[in-house]
Structure formats: structure tokens, C-alpha cells
Amino acid sequence: MTSNRDLLERSLSAVWHPCTQMRQHASAVEPLPLVPIASGQGVWLHDFDGRRYLDGISSWWVNLFGHCHPRINAALRSQLDELEHVILAGFTHRPVVELSERLSALAGGVLGHCFYASDGASATEIALKMSFHAWQNRGRTEKQEFLCLAGGYHGETVGALAVTDVALFKDAYAPLIRPAAIVATPDARQAVDGESAIEVAVRAAADLERHLQQHHRRVAALIVEPLIQCASGMAMHDPAYLRLARRLCDQYEVHLICDEIAVGCGRSGSFFAHQQADIRPDFLCLSKGISGGYLPLSIVMTTDAVYADFYHEATSRGFLHSHSYTGNALACRAALATLDIFAEDQVIERNRQLAEYLAGCLQPLAGHPQVRHLRQRGMIAAFDVISDDPLFSRRFYRHALDNEILLRPIGNTVYFMPPYVISQGEIEFLVARASAALEAALHR
Ligand SMILES: *Cc1c(COP(=O)(O)O)cnc(C)c1O
Predict the structure, then answer these.
(1) Is residue 154 in contact with ligand 1, taking CB distance under 6 Å?
(2) pLDDT band at 444 (very low <50, low <70, confident <90, very high)
(3) Which long-range contacts (CB under 8 A, 24 or more apart) does 82-86 make?
(4) 151 Cβ inside 6 Å of ligand 1
(5) Mutate-to-test residue for ligand 1 from 261, 291, 323, highest number of ligand atoms within 8 A of CB
(6) pLDDT in tens, 284-305
(7) What are the boundaries of each domain within the chain?
(8) Averaged over 12-21, what is the pLDDT?
(9) CATH for the stretch 72-344
């Protein structure tokens, strides 16, 4: 019989865990917990000793419909008996074709070409390479630079870090990186003197315009996380920014890359976040939730125009990026099962009610003396905690686990990003326990 203790000790000696200073698992003060999970069901995770945790962050934003969803499980079982994987160069298969067609339809038919990889950072790399190469193929050889937003996050490979502005992830590798230019974020929290979120967006767009006026000839693409900059702390902005950015990108001949790896798949309230601004990106990156949180999968969707820039007899004009597991059949089938659930269960509609319910439950926290900027868009809610305790996030995380919930603050930002199958009762539970963890962390 496996026990928590047994697995925890073996994990600490054999597994190098991500995004973790491993020594902190052994700190004398506020040691970082490590939780062995035996099984998952719906929003619940179960350890080996009979404890449970409500997965309030969808296991790092990937799990849309809970753990061990019967319909996704069944789809994967049937796919296993047909085809697990096949090389996608020179070969094709049903799940990858169907998925490409359905995603293109969901994006309004304007992003008709899907390129596949396994993780979000690779999708970012692919979008950047495609943009650069498309301009090269058009003879615009001076377009070699990228623009990103302050506080943006697009993954942690060396190329993706170039367009990421999170010091914690980037600074240690600065000498390896060819950094992109950073323009102002439209983060609505910057509002001063009664300024509206739209006014903040207009101000940020003016900064983008100043940069483009000077440098547009050398800029290939602007990359943004539409509506919510997640990894830097759930910074939310008005859709007006996206409309202005789209207009400026058109005016100055710069590609617009929408990184919807976190905000796509219904998370922001619409299936794609950019749809709330009624714009069309030149590239759309998807990953995380697209496979329902089952298997690694990422997709870069692009337009006929970009596709045409590569379509030529010359091999060197082609997009030769190759990736061993590209278009994995099992992952694509999990994604198709995920899209089926969206359609059959009217998920976007249902989420609207859930999001409203979550907002109602969180409202009392707005009056908490140490809570600022309670905010929400769709199925993401967040607030900032006023505390000068450098261990606040670790303390909150531990108290949350003690309260049977999984929430991992980003610095002093506590956020909720639950699976869409969460019930109203479970939302009440999540918020009540989060409030208890907040009090415990503040009054250590
Ligand atoms: C998570 C994330 C990525 C990176 O995805 P990985 O699969 O972790 O490499 C890129 N962009 C955004 C917006 C993300 O949230």
C-alpha cells in the first residue's frame, strides 16, 4: 500500500518539481508542502491518506471539466484501440483533421490553418518563427523584432522568454535572451483619479502607437494575452485595447499574435477571448484547456494570407519546424471530446451563470480591509492582498491545503480558476475556505 509519506519522500529524492525551489520543501519556517495525489474525480483530488482537495486552479489552468471525466475517458479508450499516434509529416488522421476543421469554424473561419505542437511555449515559438519567416518570404527582411506587453507571459523556453516580462522567470537567463521591446500594459488596476478601464486601455495603446511610429519597419509581430495577463497576476484589461492594437497593427503592417493558451477555451466568458473585442488575430495560440487537461497539446492557428506566404515550390520557403509528437492522435481526440462537451452541455451559457454565482460569493471580500482590486472576467476571479509578509503566498497556499482547497497565489494575488463542472455548493465551499485561509495567513 502506498502512503502519502512514502510517496512524498520518494518524490523529493527522485523528482525535480517545476517552478519550485526544492530546498523550500525542507525549510524550517513555513516549509512548502508536497501533496501526493492518488486519484481525481470532478473538482476533487484525493491523496493516499483519505484527504481531499478542491482543485480551485484547474491543475495549473488546464482542467476544464474535472478529473476523470467519463466522456473524455471513453473517447480516449476508443481512440487507444484505433490509433495512438502517427507521424504527421506526409501522413494524416481523422482526429487531427476534425479538430483543425472545428477550431477553424469556432474562430469564425478566418484562421483556417492549424499547426500542432505539445506545449504552450512551443506554440509561442512557432507563432514567432512563422511571423518572422512570413515577412522574410514577402521580402520584408528587416522585420526581425517582436513587441510584447509589460507583465506579459508566453512561456519559458529561451525564445518564449524573449517576449515574457516576468522577472522571476526571465532574469536568471537574461544573457541567453534576445529580448523583445516591451510596451505599456493596459492593466485596469493602473487607473488613476477615477479613470475608467477604457481610458487606461487608450493610454496603453498610445504607448504602442509611439513605439510603432518609430520602429514599425523592423517589427514583425505584437504578442498579447487577450483580456487577462494571467501568469503575472491575473491583470485584466478592457477589450478596447485589443481593438486599438488590431487597428495599429493593420496600420503599421505588424502581425497580431493572440496567445490564448490560458484565456482560450471559454475561460474568459467567450470561447476565444479576442472575440469579446470583435477582432481577428493573425495568429492564435492554444494549449492548456484544449485537451480538457488530459494530454499535452498546443495549436497555432493562422490565416490564409500567412499560409500563402509559405506556399511555394522552394523547400526553404516552407515552415520546416518539426516536432516529434505533432498532432498526436490521442491528444487530438481528447480535444475533440472537450469540444463535444462545450457543444452538448452549452458550457459557455452555463459558465455565465456560474461566473455570476462566483461573483456573488466573492462580493463580501471586496470590503475586507486587506483586499484590493477584486476583479473577475468569466471563470477567472482574483484579488490582491495587502501584506508585507514575504511568505504570504506560501502561507496562504498551506492554509488553503489545510482547508481542503488547492489555490496557489501569484505573489500577493489570490485567484480562482476552477473547472467548469464546479457546482454552486462547491463554489460556496471554495470561497468560504479561501476566506478562512486568508484570515489564517494574515494572522499567522
Ligand atoms: C501557460 C502559458 C504558456 C506556456 O504554456 P506551457 O504549456 O506551460 O509551455 C504560454 N502563454 C500563456 C498565456 C500561458 O498561460
Answers:
(1) yes
(2) confident
(3) 82/329, 83/329, 84/329, 84/330, 85/325, 85/328, 85/329, 85/330, 86/329
(4) no
(5) 261
(6) 999 999 999 999 999 999 999 9
(7) 4-68+346-442, 72-344
(8) 96
(9) 3.40.640.10
